[in-house]
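Tokens in:
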């Protein structure tokens, strides 16, 4: 329990004057207000001095005329002051040491905020249940200054000033007749009526309030409070003066007893805490608990056992639950403890506590804001004056719970490693160790007791290290850190050591406690984590983080030394197909072989990195010539062209493409160099794979353009700003429109018409092509159904499928759903797949095409002859049509080779039972040649470019009405 602060007991209303106030006015105020002092303050309300009743006595004793005196000439200056945060026991000791009866309370700025007198101390220390029933006789003053009634007033004033006393008792033959006090002197000082003819009998106050010596001092205090007096005469059985008891005597007695009470409460609490924990742990654990208990402030509650009402608490209880002292002392136990739901539950616990004497419980306490605090309560049953009380010591165990959780985690991480404990006396001699100590060090208990822990020193730390350790332990009582020690077998190991000093009740040093754990495994784990943080776990190459760190360091070094650097970024060609075809285990093994082959080709100063997936990077530092990077890139490409021997005799042919960026030519930051190398890699792959490219500004602009196109294209798709145009497809023999190819078009207000050659590759690269392809397919089927409903003859609509759409697992289901939603006949829909898409994913494409063919769709191979044409897949796949690429038609009839290739393609298709459609027919010569070669259909600018749906409808309307036109259909729907 802590003492109240001055701000809690001060009297806030203080009479103040300026230092130039006439003393006559000061005396008049004191008499009128019945106060014992007045304070002089400056304009900022800072105290300058104080004028008390004792000063009035001194003024009269010195026979100073007061007419021309002012406050500043007679006040006591400087006054005795103290801050508002000082507790009132310290303040009382200060007043007693200085022999002052008034203490001015000031704030941090030095301004007056109140006053404390003995009356305030008496009021705040007057807790009767804390004070034994002492009598007036034990504390009264027996040396009392007395005068006969005929004694002159001058003599009385002189005695009061000389002895610094507050009153004189007027007696006749030891019987008290009246009393002369300081307050009487204040009244007399206004007139200075103290000539020798005035006797004390004329000015004394009567009657004298008296009491018997056997009267309890509490009763004496009540008499003073009731009569508004500061002193009581003590008379014996005959009525003669035996002594005097003053308010000052009461305060002094109460203050001493109050301090005794606090010491007794704290001592009793410490005894109870030690006793309740004595059976919890073994001898070495007692030392830890003693240290912990002495360093932790616990909440203390004194509770009336019968009612469950909280009677007294300490400051820790207030701060723990965010309640004020008054609020807590008006509450019942079950209002804060969730483990006690009501009075009946409290009675059960009290019965158990009374029977056992003490209890240790775990519960939660409810804070003012409703949050719960985990608490451990140690309760003790007390009985005082026929009343039962409970002394509860509550400890917030939030941090302990967290610590226990952390300890459990550490135990799991470090394979349940136990901590070693050693206890030494204050001289550093080992007097206790635990079993973990012997297991960790190899020394038995008998080998180390009676010697110092220096037996464990490894020799790796110098004198300065141990000097700093002892400095910290001596100054703060604690040291914690990592240290290397030696086991009995000579092995040196790292440990985490924490040393604390343990003090006794009197503050004397008793023990040193050291707790340590072997952190060898932790050190190994840290090293492993450090390695994993900067290396790829599959290939054991450096990872992106280490690359960026080395790039940043290398750029600084190269800048200082004016050197060149190169960053090479490469990936494997068609690595995804290997994963899909052979599984990820084969793919991972291939990546490991790639890492090994790369590492063998590099200099010691070069750094090879796996960026992720099948993408790698190489950092070359200290280049003398930019061409060195090209030489290395060529060697890597050549090395990758060699077959890769994989488990189970599997042999793969996997190439690579490489992008190169240079410092300082292509950037001066890690991010820029990596971005530019990626851009160069993109260019190398576009140029045919199996090659390398340097970065250039044109590539950067192209990359920015791709980003802009992607963002705009995504918005255009979401906002339905794309459109589908239709290019008519005609029969060579009849010249009639038998179908159309659906072609995506994009027109923007800012950039006008954007050709598909710009935005389709971006859509494929970003994966947006899947959404676009679905939209085009749905749009074409919807439009085809509308033309049928308008009464036009059945047409075949051709829609392109990209290789990305072939990779979708639900492509067949998605096309089936679109046909069902739009109502367009499956037999009138033609799906065009490029030759390169079939070659890239031949197995998957074949399965998908067969499923589509079973559903009645027409299948066509587009751009035939531009890739690695193979008759094998033409025979294996369920194709209906072959389209001759525009590049072969453009030079007819001027280029003989193209004419021969075209003739061969038509002949081959006819032999395989496929119809043939020629793209890009723009001249009559091209038309005639293809017609002579028996080509079936054509499309191109000779008849019409791709047009909007409404324009295409006009073309259909201009078609001649020929009932026999149905024989010229492209194919018959199933």
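Residues out:
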């Amino acid at each position: 329990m802590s003492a109240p602060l001055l701000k809690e007991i001060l009297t806030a209303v203080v009479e103040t004057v300026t230092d130039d106030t006439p003393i006559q006015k000061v005396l008049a105020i004191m008499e009128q207000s019945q106060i014992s002092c007045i304070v002089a303050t400056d304009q900022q309300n800072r105290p300058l001095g104080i004028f008390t009743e004792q000063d009035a006595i001194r003024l009269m004793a010195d026979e100073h005329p007061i007419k021309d005196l002012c406050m500043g000439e007679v006040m006591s200056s400087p006054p005795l002051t103290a801050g508002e945060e000082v507790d009132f026991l310290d303040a009382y000791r200060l007043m007693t040491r200085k022999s002052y009866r008034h203490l001015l309370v000031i704030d941090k700025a030095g301004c007056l905020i109140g006053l404390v007198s003995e009356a305030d101390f008496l009021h705040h220390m007057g807790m009767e249940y804390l004070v034994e029933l002492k009598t007036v006789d034990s504390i009264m003053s027996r040396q009392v200054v007395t005068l006969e009634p005929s004694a002159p007033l001058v003599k009385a004033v002189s005695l009061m000033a000389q002895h610094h006393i507050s009153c004189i008792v007027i007696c006749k033959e030891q019987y008290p007749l009246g009393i002369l006090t300081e307050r009487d002197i204040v009244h007399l000082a206004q007139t200075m009526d103290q000539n020798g003819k005035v006797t004390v009998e004329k000015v004394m106050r009567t009657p004298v309030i008296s009491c018997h010596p056997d009267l309890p001092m509490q009763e004496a205090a009540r008499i003073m409070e009731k009569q508004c007096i500061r002193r009581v005469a003590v008379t014996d059985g005959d009525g003669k003066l035996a002594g005097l008891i003053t308010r000052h005597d009461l305060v002094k007695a109460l203050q001493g007893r109050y301090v005794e009470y606090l010491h007794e409460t704290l001592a009793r609490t410490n005894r109870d805490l030690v006793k309740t924990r004595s059976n919890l742990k073994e001898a070495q654990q007692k030392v830890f608990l003693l240290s912990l208990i002495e360093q932790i402030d616990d909440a203390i509650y004194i509770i009336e056992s019968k009612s469950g009402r909280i009677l007294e608490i300490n400051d820790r209880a207030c701060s723990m639950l965010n309640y004020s002292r008054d609020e807590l002392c008006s509450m019942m136990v079950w209002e804060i403890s969730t483990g006690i739901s009501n009075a009946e539950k409290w009675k059960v616990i009290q019965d158990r506590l009374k029977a056992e004497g003490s209890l240790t419980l775990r519960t939660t306490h409810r804070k003012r804001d409703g949050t719960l605090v985990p608490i451990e309560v140690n309760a003790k049953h007390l009985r005082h004056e026929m009343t039962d009380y409970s002394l509860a010591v509550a400890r917030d165990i939030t941090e302990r719970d967290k610590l226990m959780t952390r300890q459990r985690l550490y135990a799991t991480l470090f394979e349940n490693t136990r901590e070693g404990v050693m206890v030494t006396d204050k001289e550093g001699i080992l007097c206790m160790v635990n079993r973990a100590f012997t297991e960790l060090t190899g020394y038995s208990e008998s080998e180390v007791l009676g010697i110092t822990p220096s037996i464990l020193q490894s020799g790796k730390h110098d004198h300065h290290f141990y000097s700093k350790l002892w400095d910290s332990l001596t100054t703060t009582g604690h040291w914690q850190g990592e240290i290397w020690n030696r086991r009995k077998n000579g092995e040196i190991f790292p440990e985490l050591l924490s040393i604390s000093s343990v003090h006794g009740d009197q503050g004397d040093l008793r023990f040193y406690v050291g707790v340590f754990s072997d952190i060898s495994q932790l050190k190994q784990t840290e090293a492993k984590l450090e390695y994993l943080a900067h290396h790829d776990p599959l290939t054991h190459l450096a990872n992106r983080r280490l690359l960026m760190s080395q790039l940043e360091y290398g750029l600084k070094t190269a800048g200082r030394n004016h050197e060149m650097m190169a960053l090479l970024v490469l990936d494997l060609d068609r690595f995804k197909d290997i994963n899909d075809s052979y599984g990820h285990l084969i793919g991972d093994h291939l990546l490991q072989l790639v890492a090994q082959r790369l590492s063998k080709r590099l200099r010691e100063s070069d750094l090879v990195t796996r960026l992720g997936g099948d993408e790698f990077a190489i950092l070359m530092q200290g280049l003398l010539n930019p061409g060195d990077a090209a030489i290395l890139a060529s060697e890597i490409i050549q090395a990758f062209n060699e077959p890769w021997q994989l488990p189970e005799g599997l042999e793969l042919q996997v190439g690579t493409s490489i992008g190169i960026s240079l410092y300082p030519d292509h950037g001066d930051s890690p991010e820029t160099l990596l971005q530019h190398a990626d851009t160069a890699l993109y260019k190398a792959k576009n140029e045919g794979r199996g090659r390398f490219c340097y970065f250039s500004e044109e590539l950067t602009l192209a990359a920015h353009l791709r980003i802009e196109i992607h963002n705009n294209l995504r918005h255009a798709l979401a906002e339905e700003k794309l459109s589908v145009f239709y290019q008519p497809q005609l029969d060579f023999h009849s010249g009639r429109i038998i179908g159309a190819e659906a072609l995506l078009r994009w027109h923007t207000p800012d950039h006008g018409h954007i050709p598909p050659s710009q935005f389709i590759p971006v859509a494929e690269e970003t994966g947006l092509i899947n959404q676009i392809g679905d939209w085009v397919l749905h749009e074409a089927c919807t439009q085809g159904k509308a033309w049928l409903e308008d009464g036009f003859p059945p047409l075949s609509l051709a829609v392109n499928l990209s290789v990305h759409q072939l990779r979708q697992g639900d492509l067949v289901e998605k096309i089936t759903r679109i046909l069902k939603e739009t109502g367009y006949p499956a037999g009138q829909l033609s799906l065009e797949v490029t030759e390169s898409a079939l070659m890239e994913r031949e197995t998957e494409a074949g399965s998908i095409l067969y499923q589509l063919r079973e559903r009645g769709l027409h299948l066509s191979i587009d751009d035939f002859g531009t890739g690695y044409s193979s008759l094998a897949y033409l025979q294996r796949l369920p194709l209906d049509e072959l389209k001759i690429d525009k590049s072969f038609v453009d030079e007819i009839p001027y280029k003989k080779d193209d004419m021969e290739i075209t003739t061969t393609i038509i002949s081959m298709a006819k032999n395989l039972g496929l119809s043939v459609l020629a793209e890009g027919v723009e001249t009559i010569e091209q038309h005639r040649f293809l017609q002579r070669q028996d080509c079936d259909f054509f499309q191109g600018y000779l008849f019409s470019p791709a047009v909007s749906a409404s324009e295409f409808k006009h073309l259909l309307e201009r078609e001649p009405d020929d009932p026999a036109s149905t024989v010229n259909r492209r194919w018959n729907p199933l």
